[in-house]
Amino acid sequence: MSSADIGARSEERPEQGTGEHGHFGRGAAVAAERPGSRRARNVLHVLGSREFALFWSGQAISQTGTWMQQFAQGWVVTTLAASALALASVNFAASIPMLILMPFGGVTADRMERRRILLVTQSVMAVLAVLLGVLIQAHRLRLWHVWLIALLLGLATAYDLPAYQSFYPQLVETEDLPQAIALNQATFHGSRIIGPAIASWFVALWGMAAAFFANSASFLAVIGSLLLIKPRSATAASPVGTRQFMAEGVRYIRERQNILALFGLTAITTIFVFPNAAVLMPFYAKHVLHVGPTGLGWIMAVSGVGALLGATCLLVLPRSVRIGWIMSALVLVTVPLSALGWSRHLPLSVTAAAILSFGVSSSLGVASIMVQESVSDAFRGRVMSLYALAFTGVMPFAALAVARLADVIGMRRELLFAAAAYAICGMLLMPMLRRTNRETQPDAAQHLAERDST
Description:
The protein has helices at residues 26-32, 50-80, 84-111, 114-137, 143-167, 177-206, 209-227, 242-254, 257-272, 274-279, 281-288, 293-313, 322-342, 346-374, 380-392, 395-409, 411-453. The protein has 454 residues and is mainly alpha-helical. The chain has one domain (44-453): MFS general substrate transporter like domains (Growth Hormone, Chain: A). It is globular, with a radius of gyration of 21 Å. It starts with 25 loop residues before the first helix and ends with a helix.
């Protein structure tokens, strides 16, 4: 999350090559799907890379711990304050430093050794999880403690996320990149199944603090994997200043309409779907369905199953059907989001949450693959930091607005409104995405032809 020329200007097309030794572009993605490609025959070939397998396994353990804490923290906050706004405010506190510092995190990821950045940020996150656990164990936790720790966590994430998203492509060959992204997505969402289930067990046996201590311990797995991966030099030193370096990344994106359209898809999902599906789900379980932690655990775990299935589909999804898949996913998000607004029974809500997660996971997974395939490694940190801002930059304001709306008109009405707004915005975005996707196909063929001729 390759050596490249950082001084390359944004008007240049992404070059192509292998994931470990050069740039890659859309031509490499087409190569991955050629019938004669050895790697295309085995979607799990990516695990043959020792370093990627180490990093992936460490992440799998760490992400399970993260979902354990997510489960426990949501319940702790709803206990401290019976308001949807309280849950959103914690997310807001974490997102503010990301909104401000994420572009600088992207610049840092393109200028410094990404593995070293991750070692620092993962260590900081482990310490913060311990701190929350200690406060809970001592019965001294207050809402302002959660806000402060969320703020510090957001600070670490602002540098962690761009480094992560630009580091793991360095561990695989170019043609294995779609499978690497899909496998990471599947692991992330698979941990949503395991994490809440383990957390509820830990909480029942040892109390709420146990989930936070377990999360802290889980960071040791990813830190250990990073220590076993050989260091890589930074992409290159740049003679330009930070502002100009950052501006090159912005210009690079603005000149690529396909990336802009994918940014838009992520943004509307962040505004209308994620606040309901993630941030406000504990409030929904407790104050709309009137169920306890067990009911919330079922919703989160089964939605994790849906997300896992959506991500797993990406392992075998042909490039030619990606746009159609995104269009279908719009329906798979709109309908269950509306169903959550109408539902009065836990089984129906659990089913709707699973379908919703499948749609979100598969559509954003395809978007992530398309963005990663379209960008040169020299710009990867900056582009992925700005892509992450389509989520983190929008999320705090969206979560506060949606939470406030839910408090004013009720969460059921708010869910129905969100479903309608998402569907309308999605239909407006699709023509742009389809048009720009057709325009990039000749580029892909040209890159492939150029590579084969060399």
